[in-house]
Fold:
Amino acid sequence: MEKENSKNIIIWILAIALVVAIGIIIWMGLSKKDKNEQVDVDEAKIEDVIKKFMYFEGRGKDINVSDLTNEDLILFVARNTEGFYGTGVSLADAQKMTEKYLGRKVEKGQTICPEDKLPYFIYDEKTDKFIYNEDHPGHGGGFGLETKNKIRDIKVKDDEITVTVDKIFSTFIPDTGYNVLYYYDYESMIKNDEDMIAYVDATDEDIEEIFGGDEVLKNHNNNPDKIDYDKASKYEYKFKIVDDNYVLVSYKHVK
Structure:
């Protein structure tokens, strides 16, 4: 009888342990699900944040935020501060910007213009601001590379968001003063490959004047609905969520 009682007790203990184990597994799964559901996935906000990184896209290579230099951070601030060339931006505001979008704090410093190796943007101790260096001779203006992005997929895991984006690239046409031609990938933009033109941001009159009325360009003129995003480059952005902000970790070309 004692053996039978002992056997029953062991069975009950094992059954209770199994129930507890199953309960823990279910609780952990629900807890993880609840955590994911709490992540604010705002597609419009993500699109706006991605636009902030166009300065880096001009390099045509993958980016890990941890590898960026302080000079990179200053250039990022200059690119994303309206009226920077006129008024500059305070160190405090610059640091808020880089922490919000890159999770890094920009420090005092300067950038060097690659064309003449002279300081381009500098930190001014008197005003406690990053400013354009008035002693720099300048090399003319231009908006540089622009992109158009279409979000294809968003995946959430814990506090990390992976966003897959279809992307087309512009090339700057100096005679027009703005970006005109958009190509399906970065290499085609560099090569000015006419077969890979995705979109033309110009009027028929502009095309007639600038390009001699090229029919290929007119067929893509000001009609974003004709963009075939299946041909576009695919990029993967990784963000972490910090204080409801989408902070970039990395992005890479995946196709």
